[in-house]
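Researcher: Structure prediction, please.
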Amino acid sequence: MNGLKKISGIGGKIPVHVLNSFFLALGYGVAVYILMPFLLRIGMLVEIPDSNNLLNWDAGWYYQIMKEGYHYTEGVASNSAFFPLMPWVWKVLHVGVWGISF
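Model: Predicted structure follows.
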């Protein structure tokens, strides 16, 4: 035995550290979902994020690459500097802006 604790599950034995990571990520997502309206009410958030403001900054470039591919026009800002893995994963998973954000 390699010293790692494992718990029996549907797909065999699952290492405890994998379960801990899963539940930590799940708890984070639930906490954010529950806290957003509260933070909005007390003024710590100006607005609840939607598809438009989630696509600000680099996410807009990645979204454009996922939808249209790369393009380059000399003298104009372009998406050619962004790595292809993120847009590819986004396209393969078929998730929207919210799905890729979390």
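Model: The chain has a mean pLDDT of 83.
Researcher: Thanks, that helps.
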